[in-house]
Amino acid sequence: MTGTFNHRDERLRRQAQQELQARPPLPTWQRRVVERFAVERGTGWYTLLSQFAPDTPPNRPDVVLSGPQGVLAVMLREEEPAWEDSRAAFVWTAELLAGVPTPHGMLTEAALRTVVVVPAHAGRARSGHSGEHLLIAENELDRVLVGGERVLEAADALSVARHLGNSTFDLTPIGWNAQHIPAQRGAGETGVSGRSSGLFEVAQLREERFERAVRGPFQDWRIFLDDSQLGLVRRQYSGPARITGPAGTGKTVLALHRLAYLARRSTGELLYTTHLRNLPRIAEKQFRSLAEQVRDRVRFQHLHGWAREFLVERGRDAEVDEQQIDEAFRAVWERTGAGGPLATARPSRAYWKDEIDRVIKGRGLGTLEAYRHAPRRGRGGNLTPGFRAHVWEFYCEYERELSERGVYDHNDVLMRALDELGRRPLERRFTAVVVDEVQDLTLIGLRLVHAISGDAPNQLLLVGDGQQQIYAGGWRLSEAGISLSGRGEVLRRNYRNRTTIVDEACDFDAVNRFDDLDGGPAVTMRSALPVLGGGRAVHWHGADQEDALVDALRALDDPSDAAVLTRTNNAAAHWEQVLRQAGFQVSPLDRWEGGPSAAVHVGTVHRAKGTEFRSVFLPDEPRPVTSYREEAEAGQRQALVAVTRARDYVWIGKVETR
Fold this sequence. Notes:
Layout: H1 2-21, H2 28-39, E1 46-50, E2 63-67, E3 70-76, H3 83-97, E4 101-102, E5 105-106, E6 112-118, E7 128-129, E8 134-137, H4 142-145, H5 154-167, E9 171-174, H6 199-215, H7 218-222, H8 230-234, E10 241-244, H9 251-263, E11 270-274, H10 279-290, E12 298-300, H11 303-313, H12 322-337, H13 341-345, H14 349-360, H15 368-372, H16 385-405, H17 410-423, E13 432-436, H18 443-453, E14 460-464, E15 488-490, E16 493-494, H19 499-506, E17 529-530, E18 536-542, H20 545-554, E19 562-566, H21 569-581, E20 586-588, E21 600-604, H22 605-608, E22 613-618, H23 629-643, E23 646-655
Parallel strand pairs: 3-6, 6-8, 10-14, 10-15, 11-12, 11-13, 13-14, 16-17, 18-23, 19-21, 19-22, 20-21, 22-23
Antiparallel strand pairs: 1-2, 1-9, 2-3, 4-5, 7-8
């Protein structure tokens, strides 16, 4: 076997030498590198050499390789190039790859990276990634050619190489001839000719591709991009834009791909933000696996965190004391609310806290008159103008209590940041801002992100779904001064949940109180088109829920990536204790960063927004009986969010007392 292998290498090397003799001579060390690349044809790599080499323009690659570890834009240089040149080489190659068809779909930029190779005697200024590229010496080629994560199958690598060779006269195959290499049959391809047999085969290829992604590492599935969405990543918008669609349609994944696309074609910092505290950590983890070279260009931070940092930089107070806020509201409620008209109309203290947080302060209402006429979409209860005066009086008492304690709440931080931006805008705006789960922002939060981003082309992308709104209140984009003017995308294909899970989610009457961002037609879960078949939904009924859930967890074929989701923090704490006592490793959801884990994740539905798991368990928990429509609707939306976190399996408990 060794002799056969060496003979093959020698044959490939001689073939490359013959082809290089017909070209302008390369420096000796560059010739050695190109010959080594050509020899790797035996391990699945295809080499394309720039026709300008050795005088390749400084912002172009000298060699492009397509192989098992993806596509490499290789720059052969005497010393490390400027980052602007290596980025330009990446973008040049990426534009050639845009829309390249493979037997398994369209290739994205996630498969491409820039590698700078310098002579062995030159040494390296620094090791590892240098922002825009990987820097190695000629005697370190194994780092990119051998081992590592397999990105492309053999048929994909060949399709990419052929596409590159046919897309430009600037690249010439070395050591291989596309016309003489039989097309390697991909999954679902039949017949000697390798030609497509029609629409059925295309659909079969797509389904098989999804199934392979499902069977592979779950982290890979999270950065999966369907070929039909590739154009949306590259689209140029003349102003603010939005992506909406039911749960599981890939909104966040598409937004992350777009951040990577914009980062590689611009300077300056980009921002990913959301109302949720844990989601930026998860998104950052996904982004690093998607675009390692530009990870430092994108800031992942929830909106309140950004506002606090901004105010501190401007020398303004921004500290939020949750305990003091709760004590202040409780004191005012006990003093004036519990025995007054508010408690008579609605005895829930939490309801009136939401009225202040999501309506009065959340909308930035500064006068009673403004509150009298303010919309309260999704809040329920027809509050007359006269009764709103009672609410306003209670709100003023709460504000005085906060002031006496010297405390700011979260809305105060957002309003102070918005005021500060009005007084003195950012000296340098973000190149682009992506707002995920936008439906859960308050109107003040929406105005703040608009003030941060502005209206310039490609600067603001809003991502959300009204059916997944889990916080009270609502608004329209026009109220924040944002105009989409047709710059909107609606996603309908569900890539996350198997058909049974989607059917289960459709049973919930999750009323959209969000107006699809601006009064457009609502896109509901029932309009989703699931791609993956199968799945399993279990409805358990009985008295001993703890034993039943533990037994169901143990019975899973694959216990990794399982989550137990609850409505309240107290219930989450209870199930953490139950699972630990049963011998399971447990990971609190609010501290999870999105990486693979053998532990069972436990947390509230609020903390589960933006996540997904192979298996999800939804234990029954006591909940107050309500006659209020908006509370029932909110419960249905939370249930939809919880069920759609599951990809393959969902377990729903119902305790029955004897």
